[in-house]
Design a protein that fits this description.
Layout (H helix, E strand, L loop, with lengths): L11 H17 L10 E6 L5 H12 L3 E5 L13 H8 L5 E6 L4 H8 L4 E6 L5 H14 L5 E6 L6 H10 L4 E6 L8 H9 L3 E5 L11 E4 L10 H7 L18 E3 L20 H6 L1 H13 L1
Parallel strand pairs: 1-2, 1-3, 3-4, 5-6, 5-8, 6-7, 8-9
Length: about 300
């Protein structure tokens, strides 16, 4: 049984194979009903719009059907049932489970108790492999993954998207530039691990010091829900804001990505510029998640 829990479970050839499969699906125009008759549980115990809807859309385009739970309050967990028991029961109803949970490690735990494949749709500040794969897919649409300079901007301490993406990029010849306030730096253990894997990590505090040398700028929001208290959040909120003026001297091939939702870090005036690829990035969630669903179910 094949689960997708962490991007750390992937080798480069695994990533490349899934991205190729997603590209093939996208190029078809019409989709084969490969999952007709299959049922998938979408268990989302943390708020989500894009991830939940794109998994549901991906499944429907493949001919499958979904049953959903959209909150803890709407499940027996609110009555004291453990996640393990929930997974044991739900996995007896379906062909696969897509799980989003606020606690890091929840997806790994679920995979140990499930009788069907589990896809991690985000677990706390841990991993978000489907987001990482669609991020890589979007970069690959615009340039080769090897030989680029990529900037990670914003919350690199709590941001699971940045954690997963940076590890995935360690399979490629990429220089990672971190741009973050001092309290939200990339965790030291992750920075050390990336360097041990041969990835160059260069730290910056000011965006203007590096933006003109980047091929990819990956912006993230400051995640209020991950902070221990509002005072800590208030100290770093609105640290960065990307405007058309910010981008006036950047490389012509620069692409600007963001996992969304944004919370003021990108001015809406940037949306019309050719660098803005974040809505395309969100749309790419469909072929990538179609490829993931086929990968674990078929």
């Amino acid at each position: 049984m094949h689960h997708i829990i962490s991007i750390r479970d992937f080798e480069r050839e695994d990533i490349d194979a899934l991205l190729t499969k997603a590209q093939q699906i996208q190029s078809l125009g019409s989709y084969k009903q490969t999952l007709r008759g299959k049922l998938v549980a979408l268990l989302f115990f943390e708020p989500s719009t894009r991830t939940r809807m794109s998994f549901a859309s991906a499944l429907a385009r493949l001919g499958g059907e979904a049953i959903t739970v959209d909150s803890v309050e709407g499940s027996s967990i609110s009555k004291g049932e453990t996640l393990a028991d929930t997974i044991k029961v739900v996995s007896s109803y379906v062909d696969a489970i897509v799980l989003r949970h606020p606690k890091e490690g929840a997806a790994r735990l679920a995979s140990e108790f499930s009788s069907v494949p589990v896809i991690n749709a985000g677990d706390g500040a841990g991993q978000h492999p489907s987001q990482t794969l669609l991020d890589l897919f979007t970069i690959k649409e615009n340039m080769k993954l090897d030989g680029i300079d990529l900037g990670l901007l914003g919350d690199l301490r709590y941001g699971r998207t940045a954690h997963s993406l940076s590890y995935a990029l360690s399979h490629y010849d990429v220089t990672i530039h971190t741009i973050t306030p001092k309290s939200l730096e990339m965790p030291q253990w992750l920075s050390t691990e990336l360097k041990e894997r041969g990835t160059e990590v260069v730290e910056h505090e000011k965006l203007e010091d590096i933006i003109n040398d980047l091929d990819v700028l990956y912006a993230t929001r400051i995640q209020r829900e991950r902070f221990p208290d509002m005072a800590s959040y208030a100290r770093v909120a609105n640290t960065y804001k990307i405007t058309p003026e910010t981008l006036k001297d950047v490389r012509k091939n620069l692409i600007l990505l963001h996992p969304l939702p944004r919370a003021g870090e990108i001015d809406p005036a940037v949306d019309a510029l050719p660098y803005a690829k974040y809505f395309r990035q969100a749309a790419n969630g469909i072929p990538v998640r179609m490829a993931m669903l086929e990968d674990v179910i078929l």
